[in-house]
Amino acid sequence: MDSMGLGVLVEQLGELKLGELLDTPPPGLDEAIAISKVMQFLEAQEYSMFSRIVFDTAPTGHTLRLLSLPDFLDASIGKILKLRSKIASATSAIKSVFGQEVQQQDAANKLEQLRERMVKVRELFRDTESTEFIIVTIPTVMAISESSRLHSSLQKESVPVRRLIVNQVLPPSTSDCKFCSIKRKDQTRALDMIRTDPELKGLNIIQAPLVDMEIRGVPALNFLGDILWK
């Protein structure tokens, strides 16, 4: 048998362990594990008192990568498990010739659990009854253009979006501040872009004024919340 190279094949198949694949996880796995925590929040009794769970997501590029992770990992983990199944079958058959025991690994079970959780996360992201993605932007031409691209990508991912918050909007004023006047004109131009943009004009637009304090802590959040959701 050894002269046929089967002994070497057994060693090679044995060396290709699923646990080693987990030692060098694919890019984005950390984010995937983080968002899978959402499911634990939803299912845990200790969080049942809360009516909403809010995610403050990263900038546009990272957010889109985060939202596409469930699909990516579902496909990737599926391929890994199929590969492991084929290798395990071949290894088991060859080892039986040599009378060696087949060692069971729980890494496949852990990956399967992660895969199932990712499927639930994907369904949660696209559930119009329980999930809403609110785009937050500022009144500048560049930011509005980026928000338009973000909404287009979210539509392709079937993520529900109904509202757009425009932050740091200068309130009306009768002062003779030249800087404020120029800034207000720039913001008005950006706000007009929203009303004509094919991706954004159908959203419910909410303006958050620029305030003279840092929004931090429960009282400040309540103050801003009363303005936004009145």
From TrEMBL:
SUPFAM superfamilies: P-loop containing nucleoside triphosphate hydrolases. It comes from Zea mays. PANTHER family: ARSENICAL PUMP-DRIVING ATPASE ARSENITE-TRANSLOCATING ATPASE, ATPASE GET3B. Residues 27-228 form the ArsA/GET3 Anion-transporting ATPase-like domain. This is Arsenical pump-driving ATPase. The keyword Coiled coil applies. Keywords: Coiled coil. One of its GO terms (molecular function) is ATP hydrolysis activity. Residues 104-131 form a coiled coil.
